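COURSE: Structural Biology Practicum
ASSIGNMENT: Worksheet 4, Part C
STUDENT ID: 0417
INSTRUCTIONS: Below are two proteins. For each, the amino acid sequence is given first, followed by its C-alpha cell string. Answer the questions at the end about the second protein only.

PROTEIN I
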Amino acid sequence: MPINITMPALSPTMEEGNLAKWLVKEGDHVAPGDVIAEIETDKATMEVEAVDEGTMAKIVVPAGTEGVKVNALIAVLAGEGEDVKDAAKAAADGGGVKAEAPKGKAPISPPVGEMSAKPTEGGAVPSTPQAKSTTPNGAERSSTLPPSGLPAISPTRGENIQTSRTFASPLARRIAKDAGVDVSAVKGSGPHGRVVKADVEAAISSGGAKAPAGAGAPAPAVKPMSDDAVLKLFEEGSYDLVPHDNMRKTIARRLVEAKTTIPHFYLTLDCEIDALLALRAQINAGAPVKKTEKGETPAYKLSVNDLIIKALAMALVAVPDANVSWTEANMVKHHHADVGVAVSISSGLITPVIRKADQKTLSAISNEMKDLAARARNRKLKPEEYQGGSSAVSNLGMFGIKDFAAVINPPHATILAVGAGEERPVVKNGEIKVATVMSVTLSTDHRAVDGALGAELLAAFKKYIENPMSMLV
C-alpha cells in the first residue's frame, strides 16, 4: 500500500513553498513523528514530521526545489510488508494511485475551491491536512504532513467553503471578472482542475471564454509594465537581476492588497518621552542579575519599543471600539490586545505578535520580543507566532526617521508608525523649554476606526507614554 507524502499547508494562506532539505534518504525507515524534511515558506523554515510508518521508497521532489505547490506529491513511502521497488515504480509511473473517498459516502474534505476571500493563486488553497485516506479496496493511502508541533490546519470560522461546480482561485475569478471572461468556460490546470491565474490569462490572450453579452463586467484595470518593458529602459549590462524569493512576493502582494482595498486614514501627534526615558533607565538599573554561559547578565533590559508596545496595548483596552478587525459581515471586537511588531529581516519584513500584551509586564514583553525577533531573523517562527493580532507597531526611530505613515497589515485595523525621539523646543506655561519629543502616526482602516475614534486611541496612547508609571499599576 504505497503512501503518498504531499506538500503540507503550513499556514492557512500558504500556496507553495520551497523544499529546502530532506533529512532522510531513499531506503530509510520512517516512523510517525520522525522529522523528515525542512520546508521554507514565505515567512519561516519549518520541520515536517512523518505521519505514517514505512520505508522511503521514492523522493519525488529533490531538495532545493522552489515553488512546490501545496498538496503536490513530494515522496512515496512503502508500507509495512510492501516491496520498496514496487512502491517506487508506482511513483515513477504515475505518482501513485489517487486516493478516493469510499463510494456512497461524502468526501472527507470538500473539493478544492475558494475557501477564503483573500486573493490566492496557484496551488490549492490549504485545507485540513489528512493523515491518510484509503480506497475501497485498500489500494493506497495519502498522507499530508503537518508541521512539527502544529495542529492540523482547517478553514477558520470566517472562511466560506463554496460548492460551485467551477473551482477557481479568488485571484483567477477577479481577473476573469475584470476582463469579462466566463470562468466556467476556462479549462483549469491546477489541482483537481482548479482554474488559476495563468489559465485565465491564457484565455484572455486567446480571446476565448468571453462572458455573455450584458454581463456588465467592469473595464480591465491598468496592467503594470511587463518585465521586458522595464528592462528596455536601462542600458544592457548596467544592472543585475535578483529573482524575488517567496517572502518578497508575498510582501508585494499583501501591500498591494492592503493599499488598494483598505481606506487608510492617518493621524499624527507628538509625545514627550523624557519621563519614559527616565523610568526605563531606572527599571534597567534595578534589573536582577542572572548567571549564564556568558557570565552575569541582567534578567531583562527594556527598550523604548517595549514601552511603546505596552502603551499601545493598554490604549487599545482603554478604547475597546478601536481594538477591532473588519470583515464584510461583522466587526470583530477583540478581548485582548495582541500587538504585532514589525521586524526587518534579510529578505523582507515579518510581524511577530505579542499576545495579550495588555496583561504582560514590561520585562516579559521585553524578553519575549527579543526571542521572537531573534527567531524571526533565523526564519524559525511558527505561523501562529506571526499571524493574527489586533494592531501593530512599526518603529524606524533607530534609523533617525522623524515621522512616516505605515501600511496596515490585515487583519489589523490600525498600525502605529513611530519616529525618533529628539530634543525639540516646546512651549510650557508661556516659556520655551527643551523636551525629548517622539512623533507617532496612526494609520487606521476607516471602515472600522474613523477619525474621532482614532484620535481617542492616540490620546490614550499619549497619556500612557507621557505618564509611564501608570503602565506599572
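PROTEIN II
(use this one for the questions)
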Amino acid sequence: MDKQILMMKDGKISTTLIKFGIPSIIGFLVNALYNFVDAVFVGGIGTEAMAAASVVFPIAMVMVGVGHTFGSGGASYVSRLIGASKKTEAEATASTSIISAIITGIIVTVLSVIFIEPILRVFGATDSIMSYAKDYSYIYLSFSLFPILGVTLNNLARSEGALKVSMMAMIAGAALNIALDPIFIYSLNMGIKGAALATVISQALTVIILTVFYRSRKSFLSPGIKKIKFSKKIYSEVLKIGIPTFLYQLLTSISMGMLNNAAANYGDEAVAAMGIITRILAIGSFVIFGYSKGFQPFAGYNYGSGNISRLKKGLNFSLIFTTIIGVVLTFVQIMFSHQIVSIFTKNPQVIEIASRGLIASSIMFSLLGFQVMYATLFLALGMARQGSILSLARQGICFIPVILILPAVLGLDGVIFTQMIADALTVLLTLIFAIKVNSKLREVELSPKVATASVSK
C-alpha cells in the first residue's frame, strides 16, 4: 500500500491514473456484465419476469446507496487524511464508517421487508408482474446487508489505493453470480427466485474477500472495533459527502420508478424495454464510473497534500480519457442498437421500443465522462454543496421535471427521450460549476499562501 501512496504523490500522472483506473473499470465492467447476463437469464423466463426485474433494480440501487453513504463519504475523508499523513484519524474514520453501515443496513433491511408491496408499487409494479417482483425482492432484501457492506468496504479499499483488491472482490462476486444463475434459475427450476439467491450469495463472497483483506494486515489501514469513534467531526465529514451520494442513488431509483410507471401506461413490454435500456447503458456508464473511482483517491490525496497543480493535470487527463471512452461507446450503442437489444428478448415489440430508447439515450452519452469527473472531483475534495447539486442533477434535478412533463406531451416518445434531455441539461449545469472550480483552483495554485481549504468554500 505504501507503493500506492507514493504513486499518488510522485508517480507519472497518466500512468498512475491508468493503473488506478483500470482495476476499477474491470471491476465495474464485470459487475455490469453480471447485471447484463442476469437480465438475459431472467428474460428467458418471460416478459413479465423481465419487467419485474426492471422494477426491483431501482430498489437494489437504494441498498447500494446506503453502502455509498458511508463508503463514498468515508473514502473521501480517508483519502484526504492519508494525504495529510493522519493515519490514526483515517483508521478511526474507516472503522466508524463500517459499523455505521452495518447498523443502518439492518434497520433498512427490516423496514424494506415489512413494506415490500407498497414499495414495489411505487417503483412501477403492475398486477401482472407483482408476484415475480415479490419473489425476487423478499430474497434480495432479506440479505441486503451484503450489498450494503460490500459497497462500503469496496469504497474504503479504493480510498487507500487498494484498487486491485477491490477489483478482484467484484470480479469474484460477479463470476460466481454468472455461474449460479443458470443453475438456480433453470437446473433447479427456481425461476426468478434463483436469480435473487444467486445475487445475494455472490455479494456475500465479495464481503468475505474484502473482510479477509482487512484482517490479513495487507492493507495500509487496519480498521477495528477498538478504533471506532462516534465523533461529530467524523460524521460531519463522512455524511457531507455520503448523504449527497445516497441522495443520488435514491433519486436514481425514484427516477427509474417514475420511468417504469410512465412506461407502464403502454404495457409490460414498455416496462421491460426500459429495464433493458438501463442495463445496456450501465455497461458503458460503469466503465466511466469505474475510472472515476480510480481518480477519486488521487484527487483526494493531492488535494489533502496541497498539490493543486498535480490535481489539475490529473483532472485534464481524466476528462480526455473518459470523453474518448464515451464517444466510442456512443457509436457502438447507436450503430448496433437492434442487435444489442435482441440479446435480451425475442419479443418484437420490446425490441422496437428498447432499440429506439437506446439510440435516444446514447446521443448525449459521449459527455457522461465530463459530468462524472467533475462530480467526482467535488466529492473527492469535500466540496459538499457543489458535489450535492451535480450528483443530484442527472437523475433528479434535471430528470424528474422532464419525466413529469415530456410523456404527457409526447406519449411513449416522451418516456424514451427523457434521459437524453436530462443529460443535456446536466451538461450545461456541469459546465457552469466547472468554470467556477477551475477558476478557484487557479487562484490557489498561483497564491501559495492561500490555504488549500479555501477551495472548499
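ANSWER KEY EXCERPT:
Q1: The first helix runs from residue 2 to 10.
Q2: DSSP finds 18 helices and no strands in the chain.
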